[in-house]
Design brief:
68% helix, Uu.00g003700.m01.CDS01, 149 residues, 2 helices, mainly alpha
């Protein structure tokens, strides 16, 4: 004797959960339709797993049939993406070089300002010493003249 009433709420919750997952999958499929070869276990002839959502092949506008050169646009897309990535790296490299050059210029400017300040202070110190020397000699001369008088 099995009782269905004891598991009924859990079973209903499980079924509701399954339905909500199915609803989510169905709504996902509306925006991202699956291709026939998109099952999770499908593999390409080379043994690699195929992508879940294969890119839509380019179609001829008149007939609606896939173009025979469908791999070419994909290769072109990858080439363009690689080129854009390379350009971004170059720009980042140029930005880094510019940043380093600016830092070097600022460092040199700081050194030059420091050097100029030292030169100014050195000149000022020499002038002060010269004034002190003149005052000291003047004092000596004054003392000598006072002693003679």
């Amino acid at each position: 004797m099995f009782s269905t009433t004891t598991n009924a709420p859990a079973c209903a919750a499980q079924q509701q959960k399954r339905r909500s997952v199915e609803d989510i999958n169905a709504s996902y499929d509306v925006f991202y339709p699956r291709t026939p070869s998109s099952s999770s276990a499908s593999r390409s002839p080379s043994g690699k797993k195929s992508p879940r959502f294969a890119p839509t092949p380019a179609c001829d506008a008149a007939t609606g049939e896939p173009l025979s050169s469908s791999p070419t646009p994909r290769k072109e897309w990858y080439a363009r993406a690689e080129q854009r990535a390379h350009e971004r790296l170059l720009e980042a490299g140029r930005a880094q070089e510019a940043k380093e050059a600016l830092a070097a210029l600022e460092k040199q400017e700081k050194k030059d300002r420091k050097k100029a300040h030292r030169a100014k202070m050195g000149k000022q110190m020499r002038e002060e010493r010269a004034v002190e020397e003149v005052e000291r000699r003047l004092e000596e001369i004054t003392v000598v003249f006072d002693a003679r008088a």
